[in-house]
Amino acid sequence: MDARVAMDAIAAEFTAASPAPIRDADLAIIFATYHHRNVMGYLAKRVREAFPQAALVGITAEGVIGVRQEIEDKPGISVLAASLPGAWVKPFAVESGQWVKTLSDPQRFAGALGIDDGRTPKAVILLPDPFSTPVLKFMEMMQTAWPGVPLVGGMGSGGRQAGANRLVWGERVTDGGAVGLCFGGGIDIDTVVSQGCRALGRPLVITRSEKQKGNHVLELGGQKSLAALQDVIQGLDDVERGLVESHGLMIGRVINEYKDRFGRGDFLMRQLVGVDPERGALVVGDPQMRVGQTVQFHARDRKTAAEDFAMLLEMQKLDAPPGGAVLFSCNGRGSRLYEEPHKDASIVAEALGDVPLAGFFAAGELGPVGGENFVHGHTACLVVFRPADDSATDAATDGATDDDTDSDAD
Fold first, then answer.
1. Residue 76 — φ and ψ, nearest 5°?
2. What is the pTM of this model?
3. Distance separating alpha carbons of residues 297 and 233, to the nearest angstrom
4. Which of 232, 303, 355, 368 could bridge across to 201 with cysteines, CB 3.0–4.6 Å?
């Protein structure tokens, strides 16, 4: 099935099966695999025809996600549409050449994101092209303009070089920059960030680091970092050794040092990228490593990843049922991590029911940990939408593949 037929089927499904408020949707998001990059304009047009008033954005990816399904290694489309009475949503697009101006001051930044009246959004979804978006600088400016506002999203993974991704803003299609959405008003937005790594050894305190190179950790717990790592490796069991050999090592940095104990969700995971044997130092993929911080070695683990995501979603059961959700999952998860298919999408469904869900496998995920926004890897970042007060949020999703059968995600 080609993209045009698939999109026509999705549009027809929305028109026929969606509740009446969805036909007047305030929001529509398109996630499509790279196979469809040349027809993203058509996909946007069909979604616009179905939802003429909706704030419309989209991006290409390596794989897409729907209700209880993850489409990998073949063509796929996932669309979410939502009616958000009482809420407001502002779509935005920043082209590659606009970053210097956009990031020059908080007022210009807010205006570029569609907010020129002094309001502060409750949350921002960002869909950046990784080759043409200064994501870290975006985060810094957002913290200045709107301190504490969560930023969630995923980097386009539909290409491995500049110009290979496609981004949708309205019916306009570009190959760089970023698109996104700002939310406010009568809507509650929760974020769930699951890093899914297994702790190794015990927490250690950085006692010496390179001031000019914050990612060079020289001492842990008063001994050379490399020696501390060797002690941890020697204490691993066979299962843990297998995880390290298969997936390498991560270092978790504690976000909130004021806790008495540290567990899942307290660490920001970063890759161990190298060693300096002469000085016994470790090189970490994080420029924020400093003396006095608590860290712990970790390894990627499919069992821990599934348990961690499910555990974090348990907290969502304490609130009212959500109206919809968007999932940004690392392209190192899915079939590259789990033995069974559709794992992260299934975990969401098991916790929240068949809530309308759309998402994609990203080349880097964005989400808050400990109240701060970060860029992640190997992470599942979920955005959960609920109506605030007495407002009602209706959402619907649909997905399709280009093989012989439609894969609906309603």
1. -160, 155
2. 0.89
3. 10
4. 232
Which pair of tokens denotes residue 279? 């000085």
Whole-number Cα distances in Å, 333 to 26, 305, 340, 345, 387: 31, 9, 11, 11, 30
Q: Which residue has the tokens 């990627």?
A: 300
Tell me the two tokens of residue 28.
């529509």
Residue 178 contacts residue 98 (beta carbons within 8 Å): no
The CB-based long-range contact list for 300-304 (8 Å cut-off, 24+ gap) reads 300/196, 300/197, 300/198, 300/243, 300/247, 300/248, 300/250, 300/332, 300/337, 300/378, 301/196, 301/197, 301/198, 301/243, 301/247, 302/337, 302/338, 302/339, 303/198, 304/196, 304/197, 304/198
Give the pLDDT confidence of 73-103 residue by residue, as tens digits: 899 999 999 999 999 999 999 999 999 999 9
User: Tokens in use for 208?
Assistant: 């010496």
Q: What is the 3-state secondary structure (H, E, C) of the chain?
A: CCHHHHHHHHHHHHHHHCCHHHHCCCEEEEEEEHHHHHHHHHHHHHHHHHCCCCEEEEEEECCEEECCEEECCCCEEEEEEEECCCEEEEEEEECHHHHHHHCCCHHHHHHHCCCCCCCCCCEEEEEECCCCCCHHHHHHHHHHHCCCCCEEEECCCCCCCCCCCCEEECCEEECCCEEEEEEEECEEEEEEEECCEEEEEEEEEEEEECCCCCCEEEEECCEEHHHHHHHHHHCCCHHHHHHHHHHCCEEEEECCCCCCCCCCCCEEEEEEEEEECCCCEEEECCCCCCCCCEEEEEEECHHHHHHHHHHHHHHHHHCCCCCEEEEEEECCCHHHCCCCCCHHHHHHHHHHCCCCEEEEEECCEEEEECCEEEEECCCEEEEEEEECCCCCCEEEEEEEECCCCCCCCC
CA atoms of 341 and 343, how far apart (whole Å) = 5
Long-range contacts of the stretch 245-249 (C-beta < 8 A, 24+): 247/299, 247/300, 247/301, 248/272, 248/299, 248/300, 249/200, 249/297, 249/298, 249/299
**Residue pLDDT, tens place only, 346-394:** 999 999 999 999 999 999 999 999 889 999 988 999 999 998 865 566 6
| Per-residue confidence band for 287, with pLDDT thresholds at 50, 70 and 90 | confident
